[in-house]
Amino acid sequence: xQALHVTKxxxxxxxxxxxxxxxxxxxxxxxxxxxxxxxxxxxxxxxVLTLSQKGLALARESMGDxxxxxxYFVQGISEANLQMRNVRGAIPALKNELAMRAAxxxxxxxxxxRRTLLIKMAEEAGxxxxxxxQAVIVSRGVGMRAGMEPQPVYQMAAYYxxxxxxxxxxxxxxxxxxxxxxxxxxxxxVLKSDPPGVFDDAALEAFRKWRYTPILxxxxxxxxGSGFKYKMDFVxx
Length: 237
Known about the structure:
Number of domains: 2
Largest sheet: 3 strands, antiparallel
Low-confidence stretches: 13-19
Structural class: alpha+beta
Strand content: 15-25%
Shape: elongated
Radius of gyration: 25 Å
CATH class of the largest domain: Mainly Alpha
Number of helices: 8
Mean pLDDT: 91
Order of helices and strands: HHHHHHEHEEHEEEE
CATH topology of the largest domain: Serine Threonine Protein Phosphatase 5, Tetratricopeptide repeat
Distance between the termini: 88 Å
C-alpha cells in the first residue's frame, strides 16, 4: 500500500512538472509574440524575422505545428522577408508557411492570395519549378478538371507599343492557346486582332510567359489541354 501511494505521488509530481513546463513555454510564446507585434509597429523587419524564428521554435515545441501562434510566427517570417524585399528568403518562407497552414486544415480559398504571390515571385526569380508546383496545388484546390476554363495564376503585363500609344490607338488581340501539364502556355497564336497586326507581337510576347492552373485528369494528375482562348485588351488609361 505504501509503495502504491509513493507511486501516485511521483506521478502527480511528474504531471505538475510537465504542466509547469507547458505553462512556461506558453508564457514565453506570448512574450515573443508581443515583441514581434512591437517590431512590426516600428517597421523593424530584421528584428521581426529574428523574433519570429525564435517564436516559431518555441511555439512548435510547446503547442505543436497546428497551433494558431505557431502559424502566426511562420507567417511573420514570410512577411519580414517580403517587407525587406529578400526574394531569396521569401520564396522558401512562403512555401513553408503555405505547407504548414494547409496541414493545419486552412482551406485553399484562404491561402489563395499568398499562393499566387509565391507563384509571381517564383516566376520572376526564374524558379519555374516552384511556380509549377504551386499552380498544380491551386488546380487541385479548385478541382480543375477537363471542361473547365483554366485560370491564370501569373500574368506578365504586356507593353504598349510606342506608336499606337502616341497616336492614342486602342484595340485587342484574341489569342488561342494550349497548356502543358505544368500550366505553361504552349502554341499561342493570334486568332483575331483589332486593329489587325498593331498589338499582335506585344500580346504574344507577354502571354507566352503566363502560367495557368493545369487541367487535372480523372486521377487528379496534371495533364495538358488545348482549345483555350483569351482576349487581351490594350486600353489607354
